[in-house]
Amino acid sequence: MTLRLFPDVPAVPHGGDSFTSLGNGWPVESLAEGAWLLRGFAIGAAQTLWREIERVIKEAPLRQMSTPGGQKMSVRTTSCGEVGWVSDRKGYRYAACDPESTCPWPALPESFLHLAQTAATEAGYAGFVPDSCLINRYDPGTRMSLHQDKDERDFAAPIVSVSLGFDAIFLFGGLRRNDRPSRTRLYHGDVVVWGGPARLRFHGVLPIASSADGPHPLIGPHRFNLTLRKAT
Questions:
Q1: Sheet containing 144-147: order of strands
Q2: Which tens digits make up the pLDDT trace of 68-105?
Q3: Which end of the chain is more exposed for a tag (fewer CB within 10 A), N or C?
Q4: What is the pTM (predicted TM-score) of this model?
Q5: Does a structural domain hold residue 1?
């Protein structure tokens, strides 16, 4: 079975004047040195991705994790892959088993792997082999505060982040928490890839707004984000 990754007619990039090409054929927008936005890159795969998200959630239900300080996160989270990201009073870390079921996390779907590798290659990070995918569900009003992805064993591999459903305002900062972040609107099907000098930049998401058009036709009244990483 061949995964149809791209739509038959490529989406017109929003704000296309700022786009360029890295030579691999897909228009990309630079967010910072080493960080790239691929507009609409996942649209052609969205239905397949959504079916796999629903399957993963049945095996490992979404839940609100707690920070080490005891605060409940606003987003609902689950994982798939060899390891999954978890947070509780013990800290942030990766674990081979779901702490709620004590079972291994669901396997990383082939569609997730293929999309992540293809997007990473388009952004100049060939050879990316993720072993974990964090799935976050954002409901209207939920957000993600500025943070770094630094629980991985090393930082040589990039991060691939896939947006599905409602729009989001993505914050992309510097290497210090107090660096002023840029703001970029992410649409359904957009993919952001960052690594190299951008790998440890702070990033986050402003509170998700409800859509005036009602629920998203595929995803419903939510935004889902897939974050694919090489954790081990």
A1: 144-147, 203-205, 168-172, 182-186
A2: 999 999 999 999 999 999 999 999 999 999 999 999 99
A3: N
A4: 0.90
A5: no
Number of domains in the chain: 1
Structural domain range at position 71:
23-229
3-state DSSP of 123-185? CCCCCCCCCEEEEEEECCCCCEEEECCCCCCCCCCCEEEEEEECCEEEEECCCCCCCCCEEEE
Give first-to-last CA distance, the chain, whole Å: 29
CATH code, 99: 2.60.120.590
What's the pLDDT tens digit per position in 169-225? 999 999 999 999 999 999 999 999 999 999 999 999 999 998 888 999 999 999 999
Query: Any idea which residue has 């082939």 for tokens?
Result: 110
DSSP 67-94: -TTSPBPSSEEEEEESSEEEEETTEEEE
Inside any domain, residue 16: no
- How is 53-73 classified by DSSP, letter by letter? HHHHHHHS--B--B-TTSPBP
Please give the single-letter amino acid code of residue 40: G
Reference 182, options 172, 167, 169, 197; nearest CA is 172
